[in-house]
Amino acid sequence: MEEVNAPVASTYPRAELIANSQAIFGVMPEVVIGALHGNNAEELTVVEVKKAIEDFLKRKVS
Fold first, then answer.
1. How far apart are the first and last CA of the chain?
2. For a tag site, which of 9, 21, 35, 62 has the least CB within 10 Å?
3. Rounded-to-integer distance, Cα 53 and Cα 37, Å
4. Where would I find the YqzN/YkzM domain in this sequence (predicted)?
């Protein structure tokens, strides 16, 4: 039986994702910085950051 490898998502340096936040995610760099607060990963996928941004923007302000 042949094993099929799932495609591996590319990772990008945190600083590059923040610098290009408007082109990639349509948000200001500050939003990406806030969304990634507490996440110490130096390299992330676009999907991971998009999810973090969505969660960050849906968070209730207390």
1. 54
2. 62
3. 11
4. 10-60
Q: Is 6 exposed, middle or buried (0-12, 13-18, 19+ CB in 10 A)?
A: exposed
Q: Is the dihedral of CA 15, 17, 22, 27 positive or negative?
A: negative
CB 7 within 8 A of CB 17: no
Name the one residue in this structure whose structure tokens are 């990406």: 32
Q: Residue-wise pLDDT tens for the chain (62 aa)?
A: 556 666 778 999 999 999 999 999 999 999 999 999 999 999 999 999 999 999 999 988 87
- Residue whose C-alpha is closest to residue 52's, from 9, 18, 4, 7: 18
